[in-house]
Design goal:
- The chain is mainly α.
- It has four helices and no strands.
- Helix 2 runs antiparallel to helix 3.
- It is elongated and about 80 Å long.
């Protein structure tokens, strides 16, 4: 029988394998019923919940899904002239530029 977390994969998932692995790990590392602040998995005996595997699974599940759509409306864009003046003069040569041109090397015959 298929576990419930494997039956319905959300449409926002972009990496199915990562999402399935993350949900498997998250399903295996749930809080203990008797001690809600502890992980119920035997590999995490004595670990506080959420244990490191549960935190990693949550992070992996977020990584495997596409971020939500941006809000509709008008975006505020800074004017290019303003940005250009903010960065003017930041990139200057570290040594003086030579005014001599490089002499081309003779071609080998």
């Amino acid at each position: 029988m298929t576990p419930p977390h494997r039956r319905a994969i959300p449409r926002t998932v972009t990496d199915v394998l990562l999402w399935l692995l993350a949900t498997d790990v998250a399903a295996a590392h749930l809080p203990d019923h008797d001690r809600p602040g502890r992980c119920a998995n035997l590999r995490c005996t004595g670990e506080a919940y959420p244990c490191p595997p549960a935190r990693d699974a949550h992070r992996a599940r977020q990584t495997a899904t596409r971020p939500g759509l941006p809000a509709r409306g008008q975006a505020r864009v800074t004017a290019p002239a303003t940005t250009a003046t903010r960065f003017a003069g930041w990139f200057r040569p570290t040594r003086p530029q030579s005014t001599r041109r490089a002499v081309p090397s003779p071609r080998a015959a």
